[in-house]
Amino acid sequence: MKHIDIFDVLNDSALLGEEVTVCGWVRTFRDSAQVAFLELGDGTSFARLQIVVDKNAIEIDPECVKNGASVCVVGEVVKAYRGDGVEVNAKKVRLLGKCPSDYPIQKKRTTLDFLRTIPHLRLRTNTFTAVFRVRSVAAQAIHRYFHQHRYYYMNTPIITASDCEGAGEMFRVTTHGYGAKAESEEKFYETDFFGQRAGLSVSGQLEGEVAATAFSKIYTFGPSFRAEKSNTTKHLSEFWHVEPEVAFAELPDIMEIAEEMLKYVIRAVMEECKDEMNFFDSFVEKGLKDKLEHVLNSEFGVCDYTDAIEILKKENGKFVYPVEWGCDLQTEHEKYLTEVVFKKPVFVTNYPKDIKSFYMKQNPDGKTVAATDLLVPGIGEIIGCSEREADYDKLVSVMKVRNMDMDAYKQYLDLRVFGSVPHSGFGLGFERFVMYVTGMENIRDVTLFPRWVKNIM
Ligand code: 4AD
Ligand code: MG
């Protein structure tokens, strides 16, 4: 169907006075005996296009003047009667698909909770078109940032035999059907598709390290899967993961990269999604734009884990989970640090080794590892980051302590045998980032079809 995007009609001044064909869904309408006004949206821009229908001049199917109906309009682009924009004086309005009155997207019922029950229709609301345009622009900006800095984009496997984070949160991949029996776990997997246990990847890091020790700078951007039963506003079973891995980089180097990349992407979103950001600023998180400007204009905080514990201990009465050295930080602690103490994003560094993954570089103190989490107000952790242990013997000794299967990690260990180099990387939860820049409070509202425990719609 020959037509042009509503974005172009609204933004290309050369179209003024021209005849155009546009298609879209009726978002709102006003109807009278003489004139009908249709607000048409096609998803290409936040703003909608007003279509003016002179009912004395043209005939219009009454089904076109209904919330949610899809129509195709031919008309002339003219200066808007009100404001400085443009509108279209219709010459022809054709119904593409009618929309009955039980269309669930009605102004009065659109709470986010309700919309979550209709993921196939919620995208047609203002909020969701804005969220997903921002998400798309942010994804493009991430690729652009890495491409401009000569990182190569790697696609690491989704089906894998190794559990990168080692936390036992993997979804199993099996072709054994219902009722498959076996005398032992080993036998069960032996006769399975891959002849061994396999699962969905929780992170592309281990394979990313393989690529980084050949290309120096790589990144992955794909889905990760976690079978954790966390029923929270910031956990999904399937999320998108941005994972750069950089050879010859130590912890401070990778922290610098993370900060620069995040600022680059925030700036891109603010420049390319002005209407969306104004909308979020007014209706979703008051002061969002100032918050992000402040982030762009200040340096992220840095706080050693041990210092963070000292700060938090003074406030132990405020927390559900009191802290002491050695504990994992809960979201309430992370939020306190970033919202109350630093009031901006903050890297917490040098965590106790026992609460972190096996692959992290061991610090000389023998107690901590060169790892950092980036915490942001409103969410808590959005990045998990570390320098990797590049010393073969040290890595093997930690893996032994953790009873890991050395054979399964032979390739990973080989990287420490053949030309080992210091290297570092991080994982950014893409949905958490989208929450941060849009102010959306529930991760289920920034992904098309959210999956979480007992929920796969
Ligand atoms: O901290 P995590 O577990 O780190 C890793 O997976 C490393 N292998 C990354 C690396 O160094 N390459 O996860 C990284 C980020 C978290 O900070 C969080 O933003 C996000 O991934 N994340 C989730 N996002 C949504 N739902 C979940 N269940 C998530 N689990 C982690
Ligand atoms: Mg983490």
Report on this structure.
There is one protein chain. With 457 residues, the chain is α+β, with helices and mostly antiparallel strands. Helices cover 30% and strands 23% of the residues. It is built from 13 helices and 17 strands. The protein has helices spanning 6-11, 112-115, 126-148, 185-190, 205-215, 251-272, 274-283, 288-297, 305-313, 331-342, 392-401, 410-414, 430-438; strands at residues 19-31, 35-41, 49-54, 70-79, 86-97, 152-153, 159-160, 199-200, 217-225, 238-247, 301-304, 346-349, 371-376, 380-387, 423-429, 451-452, 455-456. Helix 3 (126-148) packs across helix 6 (251-272), helix 3 packs across helix 7 and helix 3 packs across helix 13. The radius of gyration is 26 Å and the shape is elongated. 4-amino-1,4-dioxobutan-2-aminium adenosine-5'-monophosphate is lined by residues 164-165, 203, 205, 226, 228, 235-236, 239, 241, 243, 381-386, 425-427, 429, 431-432.
Shape: elongated
Across the major sheet, the strand order is 6-9-10-15-14-13-12-11
Distance between the termini: 32 Å
Number of helices: 13
Query: Describe the biggest sheet?
Result: 8 strands, mixed
Hetero ligands:
4-amino-1,4-dioxobutan-2-aminium adenosine-5'-monophosphate, magnesium ion
Helix proportion of residues, in percent? 25-40%
Uncertain segments? none
**Secondary-structure element string:** HEEEEEHHEEHEHEEHHHEHHEEEHHEHEE
The value of Rg in angstroms is: 26 Å
Structural class: alpha+beta
Report the β-strand fraction as a percent range: 15-25%
**Rounded average pLDDT:** 96
Beta strand count: 17
